[in-house]
Amino acid sequence: MKDKRNYSFILGIFIFFCRAFKKFLADNLVPYVNIGFNNIFNAITFIEAWATVSMFALQLYFDFSGYSDMAVGLGLLFGLKGSLLKFLKYHTNQSL
Q: Which residue has the higher pLDDT, 88 or 74?
């Protein structure tokens, strides 16, 4: 039983810090997205517009996904693995 708790704790730490990297990526995309949106009234090219929109989409994904995955890691740290698996199993079920 103790080995399961140690595994869950170590896995929780690993997931938390790996997913914190997603948050780091999202925070580093902010300056580039802001440059693109601040120049929206100037003449920007088609490529610059698509790059801005794409980076904004990636920023949103990394931001929200990072927070959600960090919450999963914290849940594993505190031993909520069973509840988490039941939640994910219910929401990924193909037929309700």
A: 74
